[in-house]
Design a protein that fits this description.
With 295 residues, this protein is α+β, with helices and mostly antiparallel strands. It folds into two domains: 220 residues, Heat Shock Protein 90; 69 residues, Orthogonal Bundle (Arc Repressor Mutant, subunit A), CATH 1.10.10.10. The protein contains eleven helices and twelve strands. Strand 5 and strand 6 form a beta hairpin. Helix 2 crosses helix 7 and helix 4 runs antiparallel to helix 5. The longest helix is centred in the C-terminal third of the chain and has 24 residues. The N and C termini lie far apart (69 Å).
Amino acid sequence: MFSQVNPGHRYNSLDNKTFLEKLKVVKNDKITFGGLLVFGSEDILADEIPNYGIDYIEINGTSYEDAPMRYNYRLLSEGNLLLTFFDIYERLLRKIEIPFSVKRGVRDDDPPHLQAIREALVNMIIHSDYFSSAFPRIRVFTDRIEFFNPGALPKKLDIILKEDFSMPRNPIIAKIFRFVKLAEDMGTGFHRMINGWLEFYHIKPKITGDFDYYKITFPTIRKTVEKTVEKAVEKTVEKIIDAISKNPQITQKELTEICGLSRRGIEWNLSKLKQAGKIKRIGPARGGHWEVIKK
């Protein structure tokens, strides 16, 4: 693994033992908890940290309630953090849009929003409380990706953003991940997450929490798309109300032709308009008529 890294500093000339001591993987000839978490085998991790694990879940819906099954993919990783990072990152790559783009004459395979999601994964690994009764957890819904970190933020978010404040809960893990180039300069991670996501999706990730956790939520529906959908719905509503005003006896079939929607789409819009108190049905389905409620 380390043969792939070319840090270009004093570590190059160290023997293995001294090198691991410098990284704080080993101290007094014993492996540290940080070193164990990053490099340890699954069996040893289970013995030393019984509740250890990182939970990655993909849900085919916007909530558990509207998904056809509770989840369609789950990875409960109990391996070390280095292996877990790559296992989860490979899944996350498939869950966000990465359009083709060229930067300085070559394809850009690392756009800012991809850097943002990678930073969130590293952030969770570095800052989670691995002795908490809760697992670090990633939930991928159809409209968002959530990173749940056991353990609170060290300071309020506005202070972290203003001062580029850095206090990793697990400094040894942070040091190792920086060395293998999976983490960058400390203190800029939240800026990279927020700005990188905003650049592509045009909406900021939401960061919430309490005294024993924090959560970062990345919406995966671009705001421009949401606005387009909203405008389309508004135009459809205008067409339906206008058509009913001109012809209260109008049928659903006639509305489908006017609006260019399916029968089911018209039924959905009529139901919403009735719930909103904008129209009402007088009489039976056959022989009755619609009435627009003036407000």
